[in-house]
C-alpha cells in the first residue's frame, strides 16, 4: 500500500489481532525507544500481547523511562506475533538482521514513521513527514482511536518528541507539538522531573569526552568551519558508550558564524567516521558526503572512510571549503 | 497595595495615561529584556509613548530580538513619563540607581513580577509566583486586555519564557506555558529561527570559556560535588563578556550523581564570586552562602568573598561537604 492508511484502518488491524512485536531502528534514540514504549503500553493496556524488540537493546541514557525494562534485544528464534510494527525506521534494513529474523513470523507489517525518505515497506504505512517525531504521530493515533493512555505512554511520548525537537526548538516543531505538551502535563506528566532525567543526568565520562573534544577544537580562519576529533585510544581510556557523544556536535554548531560543524572519529577498526552539520542549505553536506561514499541530508550527513585520521581530515575539510566557496559565489 | 491588582485595574491605568517608562533589573536576562520589549511594543501599538530603560542596556546575546534596539541605558535626567512599570525585578534597588533616577518623575509605579520574594513595592502590584516567567504574566495580561499583539511582542514573550524555563523544561513550566507556545506559533512565530538565534549563536569565546572551565573541572571522590574555576587572567585573555558564562554551570550540574555544582570566579578586584547550584533541597546552598555573607535560594545561591582563590575554594568546599554529610545523616 503506497497511500497512507487512515487511523481507522490501523485501528482495525490493532483490534482484530492479539499479539504484536513492536520494533525500531538500530542505535535507537529517544524517539525510537519512546515510540516503542508508548505504543506498546497503550496496546497492552487494551489487553493485547506485546513484545518490544530492538537490535541494540535499551541505551543506558534511556533507562529512566518507565516501562523501558520491557525493551529486549532480539531473541534467537522468531517471536510469536501476528503483527509487526516498525516505528521511526526509515528503511527496513535499519531494523537490523537479528530484529528482522525475530519478527519474521508476523503476517502483517505496519510501518509508522516521520522520515520523508521512508519507502513505505509495510503492508500498512503511516508516514507523516510534517510530524517532528514518530512519537507525535503515535500521540495522534492513540488519541484518535481512543486507546488507553497509561503513564508509561504519556512519559514516553514526551521524551520521544522532546528529544527529536531539541526540546521544542527545531523548525519542524509545530503548534500541535506544543498543544500535545500541554495535554501531557494535564494528564499528569511531571515536566521538571522527566526533563531532569532526560537532559540533566549525564555520566561523568560524557563531560570528560566534552573536554577531550574541546581540546582538539579548531575553527577555520574564516570562522565558517569548526571541527574536532576523537581518537580511539581516548574512547577506550574514557570507556565511552556509543550514546555518550550524542548531540555534542551541537556545541560547535552553535558557534556564531559557523556554517559547518564536523566531528571526526577514529573507529576501533582504523576507519574514520565523519559527522557533518550545516546551518545553510546552500552548503549541502550530503553532497560532500557522497563524494566519499557517505550519505544523509542537506543539513546533516555522515561518512565512513579509510584512515588514518591525518589523511581523512584534510581531504574532507578541503571538500567542505570548496563547497563553502561555491556557495559564496552563487 | 499589597493585594494583586486585577488585569482590569492595570488596564485602567494603561488606558488613562499616555507615557510610560518600562524597566527591568540590572544584568538583564532574556525574561527581563523580553518582558520590556513585549509590553513596550504592545503599548506603543496602542498609541502610547514608551521608553525602555535598563541599567546595563542590551546584552550582546539578545541583540537579535526584534525591537531590542529600543532598550536604552538610563539617561542622565529623569524621563518624561507618567507611569513607571518595573518588570521581573524582585526588589526596587535591583533596578539600579541610574534607572531609579531616570524613572523618578513617574507618578505611578506598577510592579509586575514572578519572584515569590517580591515585597510589592509598586502602587499597583501583580506578582504571580506560579508563572515560570514574567513574560508569561504579560502574555496573560496583554491577551486579557485585548491589547495589540505586534510581532515584536510575540517574539519577545517567547524568548522571555523559553529562557526562563530552560526551553520548557523546568518544574515551574505549566500546561498554560505550552499552550502559550502553541498560540505564539499560530500568531506567526518562526520557532526554528528564534531558537537558533537564542541558543545556537554563541560567540566563539564562549566555547573557549567552556574549554577553559572544563580543564579545571574537579569532581569530589564521592561524586557529589563538582566544581570549576575561572581566573581573572583567563577572562582578560578571552575578552569575556559577563553574559558569556550564563548557564554554563548547568554542564556540571547535569553530571549524574552530582548534587552540588560550584563555579569559582576570580574578579578583577581580587575578590572571589562563588555560584552554587544544588539538585537537592536537603542540601540548602543558600544556608552555605549565608555562612560567607552571601545569599540566594535553596537550590541556587551565591557568595562574593575575599580571595585569593586558593583560600576561598577549600573553605567553601569544606562547608559544602559538611552540608552534604549532614543531609546524609538526616
TrEMBL record, chains A, B:
Boundaries of each DHHA1 domain copy?
Answer: 242-325
Q: Where does the DDH domain start and stop, copy by copy?
A: 20-159
Which superkingdom heads the taxonomic lineage of this protein's source?
Bacteria
Supply the Pfam families for this chain.
Answer: DHH, DHHA1
Note the InterPro entries from the entry. DDH_dom, DHH_sf, DHHA1_dom, Oligoribo/pAp-PDE_c-di-AMP_PDE
GO MF, one term, reads: nucleic acid binding
Q: What name has this protein been given in UniProt?
A: Bifunctional oligoribonuclease/PAP phosphatase NrnA
To which species is this protein native? Luteolibacter ambystomatis
Record lineage? Bacteria, Pseudomonadati, Verrucomicrobiota, Verrucomicrobiia, Verrucomicrobiales
